[in-house]
């Protein structure tokens, strides 16, 4: 049975499925507050990975890449509900409550987990809307979003440094960023935005740093990592090609042989490599 993904009301999304599913790479443009109703989510992000178990609340910071694998519970269901806390609603809330933040969040943690009973009860209160027993009017939907913000700040006042940081992304070091993110199969436009650059500026700076186009460098870097995975970790391409950003296994095999002159099967047998 295929899974479903429904927009219950503006900014509230409900996902349900009944079999393991590897998700595509996702660019998270706005803060996202979620609750794992059943099953678990394995998330990979630049610099690490984490497991979101059942009955866990997670706050995912904006402007980052993430890849997920979703596992149903023993009962056979995976359920996850999420609310987008975008700039528009947060800016309005900050103005009305006279919230000012000096400087943005400087920590390195990308995902926050808060086992807060008030937040759990909040997500449970959304059940009537998810089950279609109650319809949320625009005004009620707005109130539910505001309630989520209130409860987040109550659970951890430091979250205001994350939620109400409205500064524009600044230019970050391209070399370090690409080394941490090359395996994500997203557009060049997304990479540009994440590094605080326009598309043309990203391509120009990329050429200066790598002496190649983004497409050329990404292909080479992914193939280099594939070589390492096969030769030294003894992994099979079928087990990792998606994780390195390749969409098609056949194209991976073709590209690998074109670069190294041998097939992946012959790699270990060839002493020259």
From TrEMBL:
UniProt keywords, alphabetically: DNA-binding, Transcription, Transcription regulation
Pfam families to which the protein is assigned, alphabetical: ExsA_N, HTH_18
Domain of life: Bacteria
SUPFAM superfamilies given in the database record: Homeodomain-like (SSF46689)
Ranges that cross the membrane: none
Domain HTH araC/xylS-type as annotated: residue spans: 172-270
Name of protein: AraC-like DNA-binding protein
